[in-house]
Design a protein that fits this description.
Dna Ligase, domain 1; three-stranded mixed beta sheet; 6 strands; alpha+beta
């Protein structure tokens, strides 16, 4: 049943499995030699179909891909737009709640919004600077 993966598709998968965990198609394209937009999209489509990768639900501004790993949540920083993994699995909880209504859930994607550590630290720094200026 599983289609054979082309060399490039394997490269895309390796890239997503590697150190870069959340990438857009453009970022993947920029990291591959001899790849075209069309073939990268074809690879991404195939990998999604085979559930080897998945798209991350963002606020719709861009499509981000990641290798399918253990279920986790995403946090998007409202300030810088960075996406962070939060290691927490809500699948069982949601499955249980959905089952009450007769639904069968096989995947849960949850996105949390807030401010990341770096942006929060910068804000504190700016705040203290302002306070020092006032004094
Ligand atoms: Zn941030
Ligand atoms: Zn993730």
């Amino acid at each position: 049943m599983a289609e054979k993966l082309t060399t490039q598709t394997k490269q895309v998968l390796d890239l997503l499995k590697g150190e870069y965990c959340h990438l857009t198609a453009e970022e993947i394209l920029a990291r591959l030699d001899n790849a075209s937009t069309a073939t990268v999209y074809r690879s991404l489509e195939q990998l999604c179909r085979q559930r080897l990768i998945r798209t991350v639900q963002t606020d719709g501004r861009k499509t981000v891909y990641e290798a399918a790993r253990t279920p986790h949540l995403h946090m998007i920083c409202r300030h810088c737009g960075s996406i962070f993994d939060i290691r927490m699995d809500m699948t069982a909880l949601v499955q249980e709640a959905a089952a009450l209504f007769g639904h069968q859930v096989d995947e849960v994607q949850t996105t949390a919004y807030g401010i990341c550590r770096e942006c929060a630290q910068k804000q504190i720094l700016n705040q203290t600077k302002k306070e020092e200026e006032i004094q």
